[in-house]
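Quick check before the chapter quiz. The format below is the same one you will see on the exam, so make sure you can read both the input and the output lines.
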Amino acid sequence: EGEVEMAVEYYAYASSHAYIANSIWYQDLVERPIEKAAERLLPDVREAAWDRGRRLDPFKEIQDFSMAFNMQLGGSTSNEG
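Here is the expected output.
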């Protein structure tokens, strides 16, 4: 369920941009499968994930991803060179 929530969050963020929101291609290939998977979530969980996605900070997401990736590789988590 955590992956489905994350997918809802990221799609909510992406769909806040007109290019994604108005794209039939994205609706067919991305939105519909996410909506289908999100049906398994409780309505309040789904809505909370959507709200988090609308407030998502892409720079923080990239930083968090980078830190997690470095930790998996056994690297440093500091931002120093």
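If your answer matched, good. The mean pLDDT is 90.
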